[in-house]
């Protein structure tokens, strides 16, 4: 059995980060001014994250003795039986075109898609391919045999026991290019997923919950530590990112992982994503001692009422500010995410959010536009208000639904203003150089 895993290039670019945004992918788009273009360029060129589900599939297939390889073009190896294309939302048009061409060229091959977007919108893909794996693809892969010929929409369940999966097999991918610069400078760099799922109410709009469900699934600490050791042994990895939606969802467990990294002298630098109300100073001290150097956090909006209406549990501002300032003093870089155009946002509330972002003055600030993502309850509730079915526009940087208070033009202007006025400030520039070089 020979299987190709394909990440289809997006337009003239080598690849886009399809693993982010819950696996739906995103393409940063800041605006049209020269300053906006510069910010866009900086953000696009430095982060290269692998598709974690491809890493797991490669490991599962190769453990079964199948010949599995990775490609970004149409030239398949002779006798390939199955092609699995990663289906993103932002690159969906190019991916479907690619599948059509491939089918013409290799009619005997079974060609299909995986990914949360094809899972939530299979009707867009199925007439152009032979199969779609709907759900986490590992379960279906675990049951594959030498005679496997996938067809139609194949339902795949969540993997309940994440420890039962082999470690992702990165050696068939361009692993030397994996990068999370500048927040993690150490290379070789890789990714680890220690848990899946999230039970917070913001799952209403969150793509991670659409893809991974609202039930937390944690790997054992020993399995996580063994994977770090394996990455160090095999690839000499010095830095990595935990690809968990909420790394400290269980504060004790997260602390135990950090303690085990210290006890095993793993000497790595790492980053994670979590909520600020799941962090405290002693946990941060422990994380730092274990090599944590960067945290991604969602602030979304400064307005508690706006957050409440979007089903996001707000976090006390005094706690947010205290934790961010504590991390900054320790040398932990914070990337803060803001959502502009939440359902009840107004121009005034957005301006306050932008000013609040400047007050927090984190190393990275990402201003996205609220997007109803297929597979989320938010999308179901707003189905009748979406203004386009061109899903390449659902990149989190365009307005794709009728907003009650803001036009598309207003929001795009506010987004550009947010980025440019945030990054081109003397206080930010001073902090940037201090954080990077001192
Ligand atoms: S806490 Fe984060 S990961 Fe969890 S549902 Fe909310 S936005 Fe998603």
Written description of the protein model:
The protein is globular, with a radius of gyration of 21 Å. It is built from 16 helices and 16 strands. The longest helix has 16 residues. The protein has two domains: 114 residues, Rossmann fold, CATH 3.40.50; 260 residues, pyruvate-formate lyase- activating enzyme (Alpha-Beta Horseshoe). By secondary structure, it is an alpha/beta fold. It is 37% helix and 17% strand. The strands form four sheets. A six-stranded parallel beta sheet has the order 3-1-4-5-6-7, sandwiched between helices. A six-stranded parallel beta sheet has the order 9-12-13-14-15-16. Strands 2-8 form a two-stranded antiparallel sheet. The protein binds iron/sulfur cluster. The site of iron/sulfur cluster has 11 residues, from helix 7.
State the low-pLDDT regions, or none: none
Bound ions, cofactors and other small molecules, one mention each:
iron/sulfur cluster
CATH topology of the largest domain: pyruvate-formate lyase- activating enzyme
Question: What is the tally of helical segments?
Answer: 16
Helix-strand category: alpha/beta
Largest sheet: 6 strands, parallel
Radius of gyration: 21 Å
Distance between the termini: 53 Å
Counting DSSP E segments of at least 2 residues, the number of strands comes to 16
The number of domains:
2
Strand portion, in percent? 15-25%
> Looking across the biggest beta sheet, what order are the strands in?
3-1-4-5-6-7
SSE blueprint and pairings:
Elements: E1 2-6, H1 34-46, E2 47-48, H2 52-63, E3 67-71, E4 82-86, H3 92-105, E5 110-114, H4 116-120, H5 122-125, E6 131-134, H6 138-142, E7 152-155, E8 179-180, E9 189-192, E10 195-196, H7 207-212, E11 217-218, H8 221-235, E12 239-242, H9 251-263, E13 269-274, H10 281-289, E14 292-300, H11 304-309, H12 317-330, E15 333-340, H13 347-360, E16 364-369, H14 377-382, H15 408-423, H16 426-437
Parallel strand pairs: 1-3, 1-4, 4-5, 5-6, 6-7, 9-12, 12-13, 13-14, 14-15, 15-16
Antiparallel strand pairs: 2-8, 10-11
Helix pairs in contact: 8-9, 9-10, 10-12, 13-15
Bound molecules: iron/sulfur cluster.
